[in-house]
Design goal:
The chain is mainly beta. 11% of the residues lie in helices and 47% in strands. It has one domain: SH3 type barrels (Roll). The mean pLDDT is 89. A five-stranded antiparallel sheet has the order 4-3-2-1-5, with helices on one face.
């Protein structure tokens, strides 16, 4: 992930972004928060859609999911 893509995530809190992960998953997510420091970096999101729905548990109680920033290959603003 580039600094520009990290900036895109941070600038789009409470908005939708399109993400491709390093393993090829395509997803649209509403960004809840982005956390990064020297030792750890994650984004927390509400899942809107994904190319791999089997990877996400169906649970009405789940408020969101996390994804390590190191696993993100690309980010763009969803239209």
């Amino acid at each position: 992930m580039t600094q520009s893509e990290l900036d895109t995530l941070k600038a789009n809190i409470d908005k939708r972004v399109r993400i491709e992960t390093a393993d090829g998953e395509q997803l649209v997510a509403k960004v809840i928060s982005v956390f990064s420091d020297e030792s750890d970096a994650d984004m927390f999101f509400e899942l809107v859609s994904t190319s791999r729905p089997e990877m996400y548990a169906i649970n009405e109680q789940v408020g969101g999911y996390s994804l390590p920033l190191k696993d993100i290959a690309s980010v763009s603003v969803a239209e």
